[in-house]
Amino acid sequence: MAKLTGKIAVVTGASRGVGKGVALGLGEAGATVYVSGRTISAEDSSSIGTIYQTAQEVNELGGKGIAVRCDHRHDNEVMALFKRVEEETGGQLDILVNNVWGGYEKMVENNNFTWEKPFWEQPLWRWEAMFEAGVRAHYVASQHAARLMVAQKSGLIVNISFWAAQKYIANTIYGVAKAADDRMALYMAHELRSSNVAAFSLYPGLVRTEGVMQAAEYFDLSNSESPQFIGRTIAALATDPALMTKSGQVLVAAQLAQEYDFTDINGKRPVPATLETA
C-alpha cells in the first residue's frame, strides 16, 4: 500500500462518486485531504453523500479529512479554497485531483431522455455545464494548485477523464469536453515539467458509484471498480519515483494496478479496458 503520510491533497467534487473514492483512497494512504464540493447536507442533493461524510470516512481510514464547501463554478470560492490550503499548510500542496464535473444533470427533460440525442437535438445548457463546471473548473483549480506546486518544485495534477475523449460514447458534448480535458493535461504537463510537477488524465473503468449501483440491474459489474480503487491508483502514482516519465500521458487505472501491483478493496484487480473494449 502506498504511503502518503505528510502529503496534502485537494479533491474536487468529493461528496460522492469517484471523487469520494479518490479522497478515501488517498486518506487510507495517510494523506491530509481537502474535500471540496457543494453538498453539505442531505437536503442539498437527491444523491447520497456530503463533503462532511467523506471527510469523516477519510479520518476513519487513517488520513485527515477537511471538508470545504466550494462551488467550482464560482472563481471566488475556488480562490478561497486554495487560499485556505495555503494558509493552513504553509503553502504545501502535493496532489490536486480534478474530479468535479457538470452536465449530467437533467438527463430526462419533460419525460424525454436527451443524453443520447444527436448533437443538433441536445439542449445548449449541457454544453455550458460540461465546460463551465467541468473543463473550466479543472483549469481554474489547476491554476491555483500549480502556483503552489511550482514554488515547492513538486506536485501532481490529475484530471479524471474517460474513454469518450477518444471514441464516441453516446454524447458529442461529453466527448468533446473530455477530449479538451485530456489535451489540457498534456499541455499543462509541458509547461510544468521544468518545475518537476506532473499532470495527466486518468481513465477509470466502470465504477460502482452510488448512481451506478442504483441501476445495477442494467450493468455488468463483473469487471467493475470501486470508487476507492481510483484513489489507490493516484496514491500509487504519487509515490512513484519515476512519476515524471508519465507526465502528460493518458493513464488507465486498472492498467496501473497491474504495474504497481495493488488490488481493489475487494481484493480483486480489474482487467484494463482498451480503446476497442471501452
What is this structure's SSE topology?
Blueprint: E1 8-11, H1 17-28, E2 32-37, H2 51-60, E3 64-69, H3 75-89, E4 95-98, E5 108-109, E6 112-113, H4 124-152, E7 155-160, H5 172-192, E8 197-203, H6 210-214, H7 227-238, E9 250-252, H8 253-260
Parallel strand pairs: 1-2, 1-4, 2-3, 4-7, 7-8, 8-9
Antiparallel strand pairs: 5-6
Helix pairs in contact: 1-2, 1-7, 3-4, 4-5, 7-8
Task: Provide a compact summary of the structure.
By secondary structure, the chain is of the alpha/beta class. The chain has helices at 17-28, 51-60, 75-89, 124-152, 172-192, 210-214, 227-238, 253-260, and strands at 8-11, 32-37, 64-69, 95-98, 108-109, 112-113, 155-160, 197-203, 250-252. It has 8 helices and 9 strands.
| Helicity level | 40-55%
Low-confidence stretches are: none
Q: Which geometry do the CA atoms define?
A: globular
Provide the residue-averaged pLDDT: 94
| Helix segment tally | 8
How much strand content do the residues show?
A: 5-15%
The largest sheet, given as strand count, sense and whether it forms a barrel, is: 7 strands, parallel
**Rg calculated over all Cα atoms:** 18 Å
Which sequence of SSEs, written as H and E, runs from N to C?
EHEHEHEEEHEHEHHEH
Based on secondary structure, the structural category is: alpha/beta
For the biggest β-sheet, the strand order reads: 3-2-1-4-7-8-9
| Number of strand elements | 9
Distance between the termini: 28 Å
Describe the structure.
The protein is of the alpha/beta class and 278 residues long. The chain contains eight helices and nine strands. The protein has helices at 17-28, 51-60, 75-89, 124-152, 172-192, 210-214, 227-238, 253-260, and strands at residues 8-11, 32-37, 64-69, 95-98, 108-109, 112-113, 155-160, 197-203, 250-252. A seven-stranded parallel beta sheet has the order 3-2-1-4-7-8-9, with helices on both faces. Helix 5 links the parallel strand 7 and strand 8 (197-203). The longest helix has 29 residues, at 124-152. The two termini are 28 Å apart.
